[in-house]
Amino acid sequence: MYEFDYHTPQTIDDARALLSGRDDPKLLAGGQTLLPTMKQRLAAPSDLIDLRKVTGLDGITGAGDTLRIGAMVRHAAVAASDEVRQAIPALAALAGGIGDPLVRHRGTLGGSIANNDPSADYPAGCLALAATISTDRREIGADEFFLGMFETALEEDEIITGVAFPVPRKAGYAKFPNPASRYAMVGVFVAQTGNAVRVAVTGAGPGVFRVPAMETALASDFSAQAIADISVPSDGLLEDLHGSAEYRANLVTVMAKRAVQSAL
Question: Domain check: are 45 and 71 in the same one?
Fold first, then answer.
């Protein structure tokens, strides 16, 4: 690990000032990706700006048909929250299946979506639920937020403050985890709001994506059987020693069916 300066700002304004006044600063929200890359000397930020003491980035609140989760809320807190379990139980289940207990007690919602790992769980939940990501300067819909592998709509000095999730009628999440990392080889989140259905896939491709054919089928018949014969093309999907693109394409349908069954 290379030398760096460490900061613990108390406010968003303090954090923003540190971002604008350093050579190559990085925000530290949980560190589950950043710190290992620094230890391997694959990243060498000049400054680490730890957000854990910044006021206003924590808390889980429900208001009407919307659930808001602060950017610095840990995965374990989302999984254990009665508020989340009552409003969107599938989101609590998603959080409870991330990594291992150490990761869940250190990793944060904001850190996960800002990093946008192609195998992370939260991007699928955000996209399927049509969540709105709030930052220190604007609000961004999930459809516009996730751009590609480790790429988001965030500006370099922009800070996520929280995520607002519309409460769905039904929702379910199912993933096939890598047995070592617990990252999703394929994860599918299905959400029904009114007569509309959204299906979001993580782990299979270079970024989270939706499956319109499944959404149309489920809008007419919200059942696992309705999507049993719908597949996604393997072109462009990820391929590694854990599974071929064709294998992941098949898993999308399998996990989507399980997600619907979970929602029911």
Answer: no
